[in-house]
Specification:
The complex is a heterodimer of chains A (328) and B (333). Chain A is of the alpha/beta class and 328 residues long. Chain A contains eleven helices and seven strands. Helices cover 36% and strands 18% of the residues of chain B. In chain B, helix 1 runs parallel beside helix 7, helix 3 runs parallel beside helix 4 and helix 8 crosses helix 12. Classes of the chains: A alpha/beta (328), B alpha/beta (333).
């Protein structure tokens, strides 16, 4: 661990990572109870990636990802109540219950989804970066994808244009080793995803995505590069998801030992907790306080998501088209 | 008929002027696509725009339609108003996921938060002797999808005024042009930068009482020619230029059929699940009691477009077929 992390920052990072984990553990329970349906892709295990990146972003920056998106939403400050209520399909959800797990957005937090088509978020994120440059607002876009999406053609079409036009975008490949049930060994002829921008002159690096400090350091290099007008940057995060691809996936394509080994050796939250107490000398009761607070926030979100009503039937027909027209 | 407020120009020039006016009025409007800038457009529709607005706002791209469309959607989410040119709509099939899944659905999926003010435009349908992969009409494909507006003008004046409306619209608009019409001149073009036409309104181009002919884009030309021939044979046809396919101006169509009691739907594309099928359904649902004859569809033949000149001619709807259909619904064949 680097020494540049203050106690306050460390506590915040611990809070943010643990919030994601506890939130999703509860979401899994609600799924089991039938309160959440359809697709629900959990981020558990990968928390350090999104929290580390978020720590270096500025308010004008934009964020976009695919369907394993609850972590990104909580990390950028979206309300756990609104996220959980969207999972239960209630009107209090971020999309009024019309989007679900994979389709949530927040204009306020510059979170642009939440996309269900593997890889489609990458050209869109490149377009958000195009808008940053066009408007000269100083912002950058962080566009995340999994190792599965990294084989989609449109990713490389995007790399090309982003580098050609020096767009302020950081591509984050969250390599959790499996695209659904297919391991990277079986899906990718070359597994050095961070090097795949070379042909387009895009620098990249591989990062220990299970380590908050390492992620933050790399994210700072990448975002500084993009922000300074030098164009895109690729970060490959070496990470791991503990749960199946989605709730219906028993994950039989890997051994229990493999999962347990990673949890034991590399868990981003457990190891960070140890770092807080042993290196930063943060007192146990301070950490416990955070843990209790998170528990309460998550329970509150669960309660809200159960009591928020279903959308009114009239909502079926709203939000198909916007009414207003720009007046020139 | 000459009107001092309207001048004559080609569809190509009218489209260019429409874009230039909107770009002058709104800094967030930009044009992006293959060969739109330095080459001045594969079909010269963007002629002169690079000189007027510079490379920041007239952007040449690599040949990567899928990501161009996605980049446009992202730029629209980010507060800009992109005009994405497809060199032809045939290539939009590479990009159709971004158009439907990202542009059309995100407003709904976000509970109304997002919105995607973007125009996808370019020539659609058959041109001349370019074979099956370059002659595809996408009207019914895009018209099928909620969250999109689909416009397909005929005249230069409509092309300009509707393109301006499309650019100002807060929704994704599919703007289907026609290569063969680009060089046609019409004297209906307004020079007033404030002049626009509403999306969703059809135009009765020829009033008549015996049969209603509906058409859009270049098929309006054929329908008007057929109407002249029908007139010589004592059949007074009303020709409706649909102009917008989604939302369809059902009121104008139904009103016309209430008068003529007969409908012939004309389109260049294939018959199955086409715009004509929708017309037939519309008549069943909203004008059944007024019909004196079954609806007849004049469409392209249900085959990929052949290259040979004679076969291509046979594959496309011709004036004679429209005349025959008009006579058939009037029981005059």
């Amino acid at each position: 661990m680097v020494n540049s992390i203050s106690q306050n920052e460390a506590l915040q990072a611990y809070h943010d990572m643990l919030l994601i984990r506890r939130f999703e553990e509860r979401a899994a329970q609600l799924y089991g109870m039938g309160l959440i349906a359809g697709f629900c892709h959990l981020y558990i295990g990968q928390e350090a990636v999104v929290v580390g990146i978020q720590s270096v972003l500025k308010p004008q920056d934009t964020i976009i990802t695919a369907y394993r998106d609850h972590g990104h939403m909580l990390a950028c400050g979206m309300d756990p109540r609104g996220v959980m209520a969207e999972l239960t399909g209630r009107v209090g959800g971020y999309s009024k219950g019309k989007g679900g797990s994979m389709h949530m957005f927040s204009r306020e937090k510059n979170f642009f989804g939440g996309h269900g088509i593997v890889g489609a978020q990458i050209p869109i994120g490149t377009g958000l970066a195009f808008a940053h440059k066009y408007k000269e607002d100083g912002g950058i876009c962080v566009a995340s994808m999994g190792d599965g999406a990294a084989n989609q053609g449109q990713v490389y079409e995007s790399y090309n244009m982003a580098s050609l036009w020096k767009l302020p975008v950081v591509y984050v490949i969250e390599n959790n080793r499996y695209g659904m049930g297919t391991s990277i060994e079986r899906s990718s002829a070359g597994d050095t995803y961070y090097e795949r921008g070379k042909g387009w002159k895009i620098p990249g690096e591989k990062v220990d995505g299970m380590n908050y400090a390492n992620v933050k350091e790399a994210a700072l290099r990448a975002t500084t590069h993009a922000r300074s007008g030098k164009g895109p940057y690729i970060l490959e995060m070496d990470t791991y998801r503990y749960r199946g691809h989605s709730m219906s996936d028993p994950a039989k394509y890997r051994s229990k030992e493999e999962v347990e080994h990673i949890k034991e050796q590399r868990d981003p939250i457990d190891h960070f907790r140890t770092y807080l107490t042993s290196e930063l000398k943060i007192k146990e009761n301070e950490i416990k306080e955070i843990e209790e607070k998170i528990k309460a926030v998550v329970l509150d979100a669960v309660e809200f998501s159960k009591t928020s009503p279903e959308p009114d039937p009239s909502e079926l027909y709203t939000d198909v088209l916007k009414e207003e027209i720009a007046v020139s | 008929m000459t009107n001092p407020e309207f001048t004559s120009m080609t569809v190509r020039e009218a489209l260019r002027d429409g874009m230039a006016e909107e770009m002058s009025l709104d800094d967030t409007v930009f044009v992006i696509g293959e060969e739109v800038a330095e080459y001045n457009g594969a079909y010269k529709v963007s002629q002169g725009l690079l000189d007027m607005f510079g490379p920041k706002r007239v952007v040449d791209t690599p040949i990567t339609e899928h990501a161009i469309a996605g980049l446009g959607v992202g730029a629209a989410f980010g507060g800009l108003r992109p005009i994405v040119e497809f060199m032809t709509f045939n290539f939009s099939m590479q990009a159709i996921d971004q158009i439907i899944n990202s542009a059309a659905k995100t407003l709904y999926m976000s509970g109304g938060q997002m919105g995607c003010p973007i125009v996808f435009r370019g020539p659609n349908g058959a041109a001349s002797r370019v074979g099956a992969q370059h002659s595809h009409c996408f009207a019914s494909w895009y018209a099928h999808c909620p969250g999109l507006k689909v416009v397909s003008p005929y005249s230069a004046g409509d092309a300009k005024a509707l393109l301006k409306s499309a650019i100002r619209d807060s929704n994704p608009v599919i703007f289907l042009e026609n290569e063969l019409l680009y060089g046609h001149s019409f004297d209906d073009v307004s020079q007033d930068p404030g002049y626009v036409l509403p999306i969703g309104k059809a135009l009765i181009r020829r009033a008549g009482k015996d049969v209603t002919l509906t058409a859009f884009s270049i098929m309006v030309d054929k329908a008007l020619k057929a109407a002249e021939i029908l007139a010589e044979q004592g059949i007074d046809a009303e020709v409706i230029d649909l102009r917008t396919l989604r939302p369809l101006d059902t009121e104008t169509i139904v009103k016309s059929v209430m008068k003529t009691n007969r409908l012939v739907s004309i389109e260049e594309s294939w018959p199955f699940a086409g715009i004509g099928s929708e017309m037939a359904a519309l008549m069943m649902e909203e004008a059944f009691d007024y019909l004196d004859a079954p609806v007849v569809r004049v469409t392209g033949v249900d085959v990929p477009m052949p290259y040979a000149a004679n076969l291509e001619h046979l594959a496309l709807p011709q004036v004679e077929a429209i005349v025959e259909a008009g006579k058939k619904v009037c029981y005059r064949s």
